[in-house]
């Protein structure tokens, strides 16, 4: 399991863990709290670090094995840090019959990573999805919550570089 | 509509009627409207930029006081979005870009002249009115009655369209038994796929003496190719809340959960807004309409597990566990969430409820076939001209959906099959295009109604590959609890992989059939029980393609990579572009002379084909 890493947004780990503790306590009385707590953890850290699992298990009084079991069951939870942009290629039926596999291949080539991996610059994580319900626009890919429709393998390069640019703009703004 | 002006807690049924009347008489309600689709599809195509352009252009033209911009739920034809409808003359504009808006405002709204090049062409004719377009004319929008007419984030819009009247009728003038009776008479069957009679399900739960019961809405729409529920959640969320509240009253529950898949962030956002607004108006919460009926509703987000669309797995997931199915019986109506009697229905089913109560069960049953009543929403996608969301009476022939509504095949190839029912469903070949879309007729063909995903495929789709796609899907999504599902689908996939690679044997077909029957019979939940359907259905209707793959080592559609041959034609001018991109140096030839591909070395990556600018490379 990965440890909490210093994240690029500038928040320190201690601060995030404290915030997590508040979240867990606020959910504690809710029936079936484990999954909403894990969802909050995932969005807080971008993944679920070991320290968080320990804390969740302790406060919710759930065995570690159960927490771990639930995390690994659902594909939205990740034990590894993810890139700033999560690229998900839809492999639903409509996208599949319209050539989604070729887009996936192009993305793998362009980013030099496989499904589930993160690019060395921590910018992109590549994943696949099973239908995002935008079949009328197939084939689609999602980058975080943005939908890109009618994607052709030749568009991939442009899409990736648009996010790289965004990152640079953000950097400049921060300065 | 400016909601705050009319906002107050509705203490009784009369309050609702008064509010509805006030809204209907209000200036906002009666002003002319411009409808801009804010469904997920059109937003992705840029409809919010179009909306912003309308806001500024209307203000420039000083029309912002007289015309109201309405951001609506999904209008349906996602493929030609962003779509805009001009309310006063029902003009339907397609593929509108922000830069088109100035022209629409100046020429059409002020000048009264319709912009021809933004109209949707039908048989080379331009049709301007939405109601006259075949896509809309051939539909019967009952459940989607409000989608495209109201702003889903404004409860006032829903109330003005008669929203929450059914709830008020139920709470003030009906007994729980009468409600269940009405639902039973209507003949409404579960729209999630299985088609179980809703009234019967409710009656089981109603009869239970337990004081604690739950009502759940299954919005974990995981079938690839299905987006009906998403569109209702995004376009008319109050209809689901109202339907659930009526259901809760009917079975004697005061708590509900909507389990929405995490892949639908916009649906979650809009449903939460709707729940908050319903609470502010006293339409859910404590002592609704002063009748003493309480109902609380909460959203639970899914976390990316397809199996959670199965009812017992969904319940297990809400309880905070791995979403593994449980054996039935006991059925959820007896022992469901936290072992209490629970009714679980699909989004579309709940959305039908207010309609059914307002109309009365008998009138509701006038639409549809003898055994399947009402309408069904289908998500039409694939190689069809207008893909999108359509609603037709149950029993409408498939041909009408594909050709009359969807406009036919989008490519220059012929219709080959429609895949209906997702990973649990099957394929309908061309000779059965006239099959009525109802539960029984589809079952007879080895497909299922399913939740309504309908993917049209032209002749470029390989049916063995389609079977492989679904096997990969179910194998990936099998929760692993039952060995026949976990291992059986993996073995089936191995066999189909082998066939696609040209290494299959004739006995593989029998083996597939045998395994399919084991997986079907020995799995606990619907996922496993129906997992072999795509294989069985393609074997039934397209067996000759399996045989070609096995005997002739040939894929007629050139989809199965290992069976493809790439060839450079004589017209090759020797530009060497393909030679340079070939990753395995399988292409040979001198400059300015026709090249040759060494098929022994070729890994069939297709790079040469996509690189050649002279159409000198073919695959077959």
Give the structure's gist in a few sentences.
The complex is a heterodimer of chains A (175) and B (620). Chain A is an alpha+beta fold.
Report what the structure shows.
The complex is a heterodimer of chains A (175) and B (620). Chain A is of the alpha+beta class and 175 residues long. Chain A has 2 domains: 13-73; 85-174, Glutaredoxin (3-Layer(aba) Sandwich), CATH 3.40.30.10. Chain A is built from 7 helices and 4 strands; from the N terminus they run H-H-H-H-E-H-H-E-E-E-H. In chain A, strands 2-1-3-4 form a 4-stranded mixed β-sheet, covered by helices on one side. In chain A, strand 3 and strand 4 form a beta hairpin. Chain A is elongated, with a radius of gyration of 18 Å. Chain A starts with 12 loop residues before the first helix and ends with a helix. Residues 1-10 of chain A have low confidence and may be disordered. With 620 residues, chain B is an alpha/beta fold. Chain B folds into 5 domains: 31-131, Glutaredoxin (3-Layer(aba) Sandwich); 155-364, NADH-ubiquinone oxidoreductase 51kDa subunit (Rossmann fold), CATH 3.40.50.11540; 375-458, Ubiquitin-like (UB roll); 463-552, de novo design (two linked rop proteins) (Up-down Bundle), CATH 1.20.1440; 565-619, 2-Layer Sandwich (Alpha-Beta Plaits). Chain B is built from 26 helices and 20 strands. Chain B has a 5-stranded mixed β-sheet. In chain B, helix 8 (165-173) packs across helix 15 (347-359) and helix 19 (463-477) runs antiparallel to helix 23. Chain B is globular. The model of chain B has no long low-confidence stretch (mean pLDDT 94). The interface between A and B is large, with 40 and 59 residues.
